[in-house]
Design a protein that fits this description.
By secondary structure, the protein is mainly beta. It has one helix and 30 strands.
């Protein structure tokens, strides 16, 4: 297994990344991939203390890599800042960007009385003219001593140098409304009895530029929409699409029952409120939106994957979903465009989806984490080891069912427990994924408690031509050590994979640039 333990890497802003190469061996269980020829790949690993998390990545048209996250500013006023970082295509911080260090800071939420000043960017996209849009979750209170903190979703527009375009929206900012606009914060307090403002949160930002019109797709979650009977404060999922030209709601996005702000909303509420969690999304060739997430369905059921697929007009895709697996899992909202599943429920396990992509053949592959069984003492009826810490899980969904030809008879849990690992060393997670032209998928997260990249064949087997077992582990061995998991990934048209770390590490973050994994 490839790792960095024998390689020396210089840390901090002025790092000189070391080029690392490795190759796989036997074909093993390479699924549909035949032949023993290893896939040659290389990794450039850059560390910087100028950020404490990277949450979103985009490849710019000039080949550079854009990343957004935050800096805790612990050495200054303690007010967390949003950061935009630019790396060269080779993975070096671009010293021509920002103040000569490759980083631009923004402070949209200001530290004050009863206000943390917290802000967290989760997405960045580049427009055709080189401008950038950042999706930032901003703290609401800003010194308000009366009401507790809530969160708003803010889009920020900057030029290619990171300078805010003050002509866009209000001083370069546009609010994305998930259920409750900021103007109704006081009504939220009055109607719900809450002591906090509503908390909206954007988890992904995508650019839909079909037909030359640039549109911004934003997915996330927040409290039930304004006007909902009883104004419950449970968490629902939201999907919306805005025009990049001015940040207004796209008139071509017309869900069946739009909320305030024009968003599509989804809730699994039954007898009571549920917490619906939205994660990353992807776009289909005709503007379809596929949103990954999960919901706890209650006692004895735990978290189930919930996929939502909308047609380009914002209505549920009638050709997808309308099923729950296993069918014994009670729910009341699996209609057109909705798929709910947890293949581990019979063994008291759970499943969460953090990203989903569509293969060229039309199937949908999901990555995330969960548990093949309900704990160390619970056996598996599917041949897995009892779960100690979370397992990476991946599935394939068809239009109206999960696919039993994928992985291990329709399930796939990657576990280090089978190697004898316990405790934190047995932790696996899938946090994000990308798809290669041949249907293979690359997942990023953790394996054996370490940052890791997984490469799967199109049918859900680890591609053992990649470093012998399909898993690249990337522990940090350079003091000070960045103890973070791989969190976000983006693949360029040229096959360059950029991966960022997240974990609010005071030491900093890592940017990994990987080439060669697209070998067929």
């Amino acid at each position: 297994m490839f790792d960095l333990k024998t390689s020396r890497r210089l840390a901090a802003v002025s790092c000189l990344p070391i080029m690392l190469a490795a190759c796989g061996g036997d074909s093993g269980s390479g699924g549909s991939i035949a032949g023993p020829a290893p896939i040659q790949f290389s990794v450039v690993d850059t560390q910087t203390e100028l950020a404490n998390a990277i949450n979103g990545i985009d490849h710019a048209s000039d080949g550079s890599i854009l990343a957004v996250g935050y800096a805790n500013n612990d050495g200054g006023d303690g007010d967390r800042r949003s950061v935009l970082l630019r790396f060269t295509s080779a993975g070096d911080l671009d010293q021509s960007f920002g103040g000569g260090d490759g980083v631009v800071e923004y402070n949209l939420s200001v530290l004050g009385a009863n206000a943390s000043g917290d802000e967290q960017p989760y997405g960045v996209v580049e427009l055709a003219n080189g401008d950038l849009i950042l999706a930032i979750n901003t703290n609401d209170a800003n010194g308000d001593a009366t009401n507790g903190e809530g969160t708003s979703v803010t889009l920020l527009r900057v030029d290619s140098d990171g300078v805010v375009d003050t002509t866009w929206g209000t001083n370069g900012q546009v609010e994305v409304v998930f259920g409750w606009p900021d103007s109704a914060n006081a009504a939220f307090i009055a109607d719900t009895g809450s002591t906090d403002f509503p908390s909206d949160f954007a988890y992904d930002l995508l650019l839909d530029d079909r037909g030359g019109t640039e549109r911004l797709v934003v997915t996330g979650f927040g409290p039930a929409a304004q006007g909902t009977a009883g104004n419950p404060t449970d968490r629902d999922r939201y999907i919306t699409r805005l025009l990049a030209s001015d940040g207004s709601v796209d008139p071509g996005f017309t869900p069946n029952d739009p909320t305030v702000g024009g968003a599509y909303t989804y809730s699994t509420d039954r007898s009571g409120g549920t917490t619906d969690n939205s994660r990353r999304a992807s776009l289909g060739p005709n503007g379809e939106i596929l949103s990954a997430g999960y919901t706890d369905l209650g006692a004895g059921l735990d978290n189930h994957v919930v996929l939502i697929r909308l047609a380009a007009d914002g209505t549920p895709d009638a050709s997808f979903g309308n099923y729950t697996e296993p069918s014994t899992s009670p729910q009341n909202n699996d209609g057109p465009g909705i798929a709910i599943f947890n293949p581990f429920v019979d063994d008291s396990g759970f499943a969460e989806a953090y990203a989903a992509v569509q293969q060229a053949s039309g199937e949908f592959v999901v990555t995330g984490y969960g548990a093949a069984t309900g704990g160390p003492g619970v056996p598996s009826s599917q041949g897995y080891a009892p779960t100690d810490q979370p397992d990476l899980v991946t599935f394939r969904a068809l239009n109206n069912s999960t696919d039993n030809t994928f992985g291990n008879n329709g399930t796939q849990a990657i576990q280090s427990e089978s190697m004898g690992a316990t405790g934190d060393a047995s932790e696996e997670r899938g946090r994000d994924m990308v798809i290669l032209p041949n249907g293979r998928t690359i997942h990023v997260g953790r394996f054996n408690g370490m940052p890791a990249i997984y490469v799967f064949t199109a049918d859900g087997q680890l591609d053992t031509r990649v470093d012998n077992d399909g898993i690249i582990t990337l522990p940090d061995t350079t003091a000070p050590i960045v103890e973070q998991q791989l969190f976000t990934a983006e693949l360029s048209d040229a096959g360059v994979l950029a991966v960022g770390t997240r974990g609010n590490d005071p030491v900093g973050v890592r940017m990994l640039v990987v080439t060669g994994l697209d070998g067929s």
